[in-house]
Design brief:
With about 60 residues, the chain is mostly helical. It is about 70% helix and about 0% strand. The chain is elongated. The model has no long low-confidence stretch (mean pLDDT about 80).
């Protein structure tokens, strides 16, 4: 993952833990998760709105 080994990843997590403390880590994690979700949602919406994209299906009404 990104060229990081186990030792490097552990060191980065340790530094983050020392900088932010145990009380702020859940808030930071949920903020990052929400940002990723919003980013993926906006990418999906942008793909749907592209001209020539036939992913939208029209609903026909029987009259």
């Amino acid at each position: 993952m990104f060229g990081l080994g186990t030792q490097e990843l552990f060191l980065v997590l340790l530094i983050v833990f020392v900088l932010f403390g145990a009380t702020r880590l859940p808030q930071i994690g949920s903020g990052v998760g929400q940002a990723i979700r919003n980013f993926k949602k906006s990418i999906a919406e942008a793909d749907e709105e592209k001209p020539g994209n036939d992913t939208k299906k029209e609903i026909s009404k029987d009259t």
